[in-house]
Hints:
Layout: E1 2-5, E2 9-29, E3 32-51, E4 56-79, E5 82-93, E6 100-110, E7 115-126, H1 130-134, E8 140-141, E9 149-162, E10 166-184, E11 190-212, E12 215-230, E13 248-256, E14 262-270, E15 273-274, E16 282-283, E17 286-296, E18 301-308, E19 316-318, E20 321-322, E21 327-334
Parallel strand pairs: 8-11
Antiparallel strand pairs: 1-2, 2-3, 3-4, 4-5, 5-6, 6-7, 7-9, 9-10, 10-11, 11-12, 12-13, 13-14, 14-17, 15-16, 17-18, 18-21, 19-20
Amino acid sequence: FDSGASSSARYDNEQNSYGIQAQHSWNFAKNQVLVYGFDYRNTSARNSTFNYLTDQKTTSYDDSISQGALFARYEINFTPDFTMNFGLRQDFSSLTNGSFTSPSVGAKLVLTDSTTLRANYIRNFRAPTLFNLYARGSSFVGNPDLKPEKGDSYDIGIDQKLWNFGLLRLTYFSNTISDLIAYNFVVPVGTYENIGLVRTTGIEAVLNVQFAKNIYGFVNYTLNNPRILSSANSAEEGNELRFAGADSLNLGISYETPAGLYMGILMHSLGAYPTNNTNTESLPGYTTFDLKIRVPLNNNLVFTGSVDNIFNQRYQLFPGYPDAGRVFQIGLSSSF
């Protein structure tokens, strides 16, 4: 990645990664399944700065991070209507404090032919990426002192079939994360930082319907409330986490045939959100519309096309960084 030239320097960030994952599913009893396996990945990065005035190149970081995990998930059907699953994941990392054990548990209860209840819990862990730690550009710099994120996530929900034409899903969620890794957008140079404790609560509603043969519609709405419970800056406590609290609404209607022909109109709407943790500044929300098409030309060749942001709506995701505007894309894909 080349951030481009400023008046006197160019910052280059190069990153390469590779990994492998293997898993096996063992149905050792009629009502019990065990899935287990491992994954491994290695990411290397090199950051350098080229000074146009001195015609010299300086390397600030050139190293790699290795990460791996052992995982297992056990599922048991106590009855045809009641299922539970139990999971365990052990993460390993070459980073300091990079080893962590994450348990999880979930349950699903079928109340009637049209109503299902579900609940889940998971212990979270996320190590900072090399970009978080060491990236460097004209307006941002990594933070090598970042700690991994740790937390707890819960959700409980209900799935309700709407006769033979639709499905409504309602979910309440709560995520509590310590040492949350967040970007501190400041001028002239931003960076990543750990925030002591953040709890995000919210509700997600999803509705999928079939209006007629080959005609489908959907709408989903997420009410999102991330609050800073603990911070090194006491003025931030109780406030909304920057760039994270926008409510979102998505809806669309599409025509799709069993042969693969597809055309859809999609709407995405994002609410306002603060740009700092003291909540003194914010960006307004925006709404965009997209068109997506897929046309099978034969059994092996498919044409795809899209127009994103049809009405060329202007908005900013970060202050001073406008969006790309209307975007056209076409493509061909082949299978053989």
